[in-house]
Write a structure and sequence with these properties.
This protein is α/β, with parallel strands linked by helices and 332 residues long. 30% of the residues lie in helices and 16% in strands. Helix 4 (107-120) links the parallel strand 4 (101-104) and strand 5. Helix 5 runs parallel beside helix 7. It has helices spanning 70-73, 77-81, 86-97, 107-120, 133-140, 149-155, 166-186, 267-276, 302-310, 317-324; strands spanning 22-30, 39-48, 53-60, 101-104, 129-132, 193-195, 256-260, 280-282, 291-294, 314-315. The strands form two sheets. Strands 3-2-1-4-5-6 form a six-stranded mixed sheet, sandwiched between helices. A four-stranded parallel sheet has the order 8-7-9-10, with helices on both faces.
């Protein structure tokens, strides 16, 4: 039984009217961390407005490729071979997410994996807001040694039975989220809700299919224990940086563009279009950055905060798409 260490604040008599009416606590296990990785299991605990469990659901998913780091999630090719494809569980998954705030530990990762799977299935995940329990624990000032799920669980006396098993991770998070939510309500804390933008445009790259795992050196489909796939590298921009973007004027080849937050077009497609137009795609934001593209300028991400600090211009995805249609050539 969960020992609720937020008592008496965990049971406020007055509940903030602005708080959501329901939550879907989610955990997904995946073949890896990269853009083209796939979900191999998913779990959802549905909670009511005050964080009490209504029901739960779990499924394996055949990723149609190598399962990746089996030493972490324990799901082999043999186990996943007979599992349903994502498109076969997409409707049931959606029914458990609909009209609820998606709650996850490092929620941006779970959301992006879910959004990509729905885009592959040519439909949209019915999620419009997410809440990250890492952000909530920071907002509450919980005295945690780090931001791992096990640390949050230990703080609230929740016992984890099977780490990296989607159903148990979702259970643990649901039990830790309930007292966190009630503590936030008792203190009238504004919940760190973020907007979710379902992907409307997506393309896949070839990936190793499910089947062969061990390569004789402990590797799994290009993975190795303790390591993940490297990030995609881009060729250097051939044009000099002409400086900051100025509102009302076109972009110019060589400008440094950074992205933050969800986009309705897959991020790598959007970055590819920027590179094709002659722009420099920056992975971080500095004083040299010409423009930040974000659909949530009020988010507290490091890039948004640095943009404010440096006075970097900010536009949303739609405005950036229009600007991409008329990029000025670099000075000769």
């Amino acid at each position: 039984m969960l020992e609720d260490r937020t008592t008496p604040a965990s049971s406020p008599t007055t509940w903030p009217a602005a708080y959501p009416q329901g939550y879907a606590v989610v955990d997904v296990e995946t073949t890896g961390l990269a853009r083209d990785d796939r979900i191999i299991s998913a779990a959802v605990y549905r909670l009511d407005a005050r964080g009490d469990v209504e029901d739960h659901w779990y499924t394996l998913v055949n990723p149609e490729r190598d399962p990746g780091p089996v030493w972490i999630h324990g799901l082999t090719s043999e186990v996943l071979e007979g599992a349903p494809l994502f498109r076969e569980v997409a409707e049931e998954f959606a029914a458990r997410l609909r009209d609820r705030v998606l709650v996850a530990h490092n929620a941006v990762f779970d959301w992006q994996m879910i959004a990509r799977e729905y885009a592959r299935a040519e439909c949209e995940a019915p999620v419009r807001q997410r809440l990250c329990t890492i952000a909530l624990s920071k907002q509450l000032g919980l005295p945690l040694p780090n931001h791992k799920l096990e640390s949050l669980a230990a703080h609230f006396g929740v016992v984890q039975q099977r780490a990296h098993h989607a159903l148990d991770d979702a259970r643990v998070l649901a039990e830790a989220f309930r007292p966190s939510l009630r503590a936030a309500a008792a203190g009238s804390v504004r919940l760190p809700l973020q907007e979710c933008r379902p992907l409307t445009e997506w393309t896949d790259r070839p990936a190793p299919r499910i089947g062969r795992q061990a390569d004789g050196h402990g590797g799994y489909g290009g993975y190795r224990a303790g390591g993940w796939r490297p990030s995609r590298k881009r060729p250097a921009c051939p044009y000099p940086n002409p400086g900051r973007y100025q509102e009302g004027r076109p972009l110019k080849q060589g400008m440094r563009v950074a992205f933050s937050g969800d986009t309705s077009v897959d991020r790598e497609l959007l970055e590819d279009r920027a590179v094709e137009a002659g722009l420099h795609v920056a992975t971080s934001l500095s004083r040299l950055t010409s423009l930040l593209v974000t659909n949530d300028p009020d988010a507290g991400t490091s890039k948004v905060l640095k943009a404010r600090q440096y006075g970097t211009p900010v536009v949303d995805e739609a405005a950036f798409g229009q600007l991409l249609a008329n990029v000025e050539p670099a000075d000769e």
